[in-house]
Request: fold
Amino acid sequence: MFIIRFIVAVIVISISTSALADNHLLPMPTTGEDGMHEQSWFHDGFLDLGEDLVEAAKNGKRLVIIWEQRGCPYCKRMHEVNLRIPRIVNSIKNNFMVIQLNLWGDREVTDFDGEVLKEKDLANKWGVLFTPTSIFYPESMEKIGTKSGRDAEVLRIPGYFKPFHFYFLFKYARTNGYESEPNFQRWLGGIGGELDKMGIEYDLYADELPKDLPPKM
Reply:
């Protein structure tokens, strides 16, 4: 009986500890009938990318398109790890309009150049091969002109990034870091140098952000 009670107590403690550790995270995402992960704050418009970018700019935000697909393990990880960290989500929501597209989808999308294509055909036109793939765009349509999304993009990241890289990727795009340093990893090395000077410990491979990360960084 003692052994049973001890086991039950250990289970209860383990669950409580896990709950406390998970307490600061946002709820787990849901998935739609198409198998795509859902985020209530993703932009749900008419998929006219030029109009979406203009709307984003009016709200002081940048446009980013994230390509995903059903059954993508790294899309799942992005949603269940990265996009459950409040600081990451708040930073993206405050500075970006996010549009999620399906690599094999049939919804019609109007490209920046005016061509209307199904998602899967647009992915082929843009040369999107992997998921997730995040593509960032300039601040205004003036910088895009009549270019297609493939020619207008300022930054493309194919694949999944751990939270540290993911968080700073959006800062890199928001601050136009790619203009002074086209190589994101080198730019990120500068961030690491700043954190080292401040004596802040960080783990590039952790599923969380550094606990002492300065508010303005």
Q: What stands out?
A: The mean pLDDT is 91. The chain is about 40% helix and 15% strand. Residues 33-163 form a domain with the Glutaredoxin fold (CATH 3.40.30.10).
